[in-house]
Design brief:
The complex is a heterodimer of chains A (about 250) and B (about 425).
Chain A: H1 2-17, H2 37-40, H3 56-84, H4 87-100, H5 102-111, H6 115-130, H7 139-142, H8 152-158, E1 166-169, E2 173-176, H9 177-193, H10 202-219, H11 232-249
Antiparallel strand pairs in A: 1-2
Chain B: H1 2-20, H2 31-37, E1 53-58, E2 75-80, E3 86-92, H3 102-113, E4 117-121, H4 127-132, H5 142-160, E5 166-174, H6 176-191, E6 198-202, H7 208-220, H8 230-247, H9 257-264, H10 271-297, H11 316-323, H12 327-342, H13 348-354, H14 361-366, E7 370-375, H15 386-393, E8 397-400, H16 412-423
Parallel strand pairs in B: 3-4, 3-5, 5-6, 6-7, 7-8
Antiparallel strand pairs in B: 1-2, 2-4
Helix pairs in contact in B: 2-10, 5-6, 7-10, 10-11
Classes of the chains: A mainly alpha (about 250), B alpha/beta (about 425).
Amino acid sequence: MKNLFNFSALLICFILLSACSATPIKQAGELPAERTAETTLTNGTAHAIDVYDPWEGFNRGMYRFNAGFDHYVFLPVVRGYRAITPNVVKDGISNFFDNIYEINTLLNTVLQLKPKKSLDTAGRFVINSTVGLLGIFDVATRWGIHEHDEDFGQTLGHYGVGNGPYLVLPILGPSNLRDAGGLSVDILAFNEIDPLNFKEHNHRELAFFLMDGIDIRHRTEFRYYDSGSPFEYELIRMLYTSKRKIEINH
Amino acid sequence: MRTMSIIVGFLIATVLSTACWADYNYPIDNALAATIIGTPKEFIADLPADIPREEKSLIVFPDRELPDFVPRAELHYTLVAQDHAAPLIFSIAGTGGSHRGAKMQMIEKAFYQAGFHVVSLSSPTYANFIVTASTTSIPGHIVEDSADLYNVMELIEDQVHHDIEITDFHITGYSLGGAQAAFISLLDEKRKVFNFKKVLMINPPVSLYNSAVILDDMLANNIPGGPGHFNSFYNNLVEDFSKEYNRQENLDFNDDFLYRIYQRKHGKIDPSRSAAIIGFGFRISSSNLIFTSDVMTNGGYILPKNHQLRVRESTTGYAKVASRTTFIDYYNDRFAPFFLAKYSGLTDKALRHQLSLESISNYLSSTEKIAVVHNVDDIILAPGEIDFFRNAFTTRAHIYPKGGHCGNMAYKDNVDYMVNFFKD
């Protein structure tokens, strides 16, 4: 928990220190392009690709860092994990993490006063933790109780908190100030409830979060620079923002 | 009189084709919807969930210096290898497509299951290819792009031939990749490196120029209020997606989300909006291509000439300009001037002809090893262009009654046909 605060403080310092502008600056010997904003675009039109991003320079640097980390560390680890782990075990691990984080979903459905989702989620957690052997099997879905996904970022959005500046988090990737704050609260709440008794078993905590990271990456299809777009940063920023809007409305 | 006989001929052809296809049960009748939705889960061929894919890379031009802005210096491709001697199928992605796109992975699974090695290649119009493997970095010239692909295929063969045992070479591709497969086969008749046994073209364009105009116009003509109002179009789309998502609480976005909407609306979709979505997809691909080419050639088209893009520099302004640049703008402003200058005496009309299957129609009609799979309602074809395939390929044209552009590729019958073509 303390680590998390240290980490957030460090991140904010980092952003402020590296607040170099992302605005293109005219370079020596540069000649104007044939097609420019002035000649191609109508003044005053809104653009779907525009997202409030005052920390763009920092964010782009972090995006590039994340892509490198993904390429040299994250994906090789995931490939190793995939190679040595049978599919049933991988699915069991995924189900286990989905189940344990139902706690966060439940908290947030309650905070958003969504009774149907709260009941579903509580029911799922009870069924899967028992009949599903500590969440390894997702029995509840087979019984017709479907999974929901609510986090504190969505709860804030539900009560009208705006996105705030776009923010690319280290390793985790696209976010914004609201969702990053929400994530910290979700982690705090999880640590406070401490369902796996990390307080007495410190070494479990590290293993848990490492495995969680590997499982998430294993399940995420996204690959950096796979879109083949020189505008990938913008496209991801736009899609992340739209996706969160849809999730908050849900 | 002549009109009359054409009409009668058309009617007979229609009746015959419906008779032949009475048992073709791909579920989406609307060509635009088929193009967007593809093949719904329950209709997809039986394919293995996991195959041994290996993502590999190589350097094509060791001396090429790349700008900082480019994240990767190697060309990436996928190898799916059998553990025994087998024929190898080269598979080429469509416009703007990567070697690891969904359609490419479907093709890999189908052929791997049938006992082939597969090498998946990105399209020469995909940024990583433009940057690392295109000789000119001005993509779109099908003859030159196919020669670049051929060069890459030779390098790959060099890289993998120690690890896998290859008995024969085949080639396939969908969309633009399908047309390139034919040009590569023609080049191979001269170069004779691979001596391809069979070539399968899947939903290729006839004329690249015509198809580009059609796809450009799909966006230009279908945004309410004109392309300048794309933002409201996009926001409404997100809004409606959101409503659909709320309506069907147990659905993931990817779990046949679009097909469920199609079913709920009994196939009555908004044609204009569907066309705009397809046009938007093409516009993203084409603006990626145009800007990448501009950066690589220091062309001064959208990026100011002599400007070195820094890693942390915003490209949002350029993205906006690129998003308002059509493929035909690129063709007129950069592509045609470059190639007209390169080949003296070439006219614009002759250049367009070069970029068309019509320029190799003699080869296509006389070469037994080449076949084509297509759909009568493919949206990238201009009116009448489907007849080019009927005439040039006759019995080697396998034309389905529906499926739009590549929508039915993963459908059971299509996969069976595709696999059996190479097996026989």
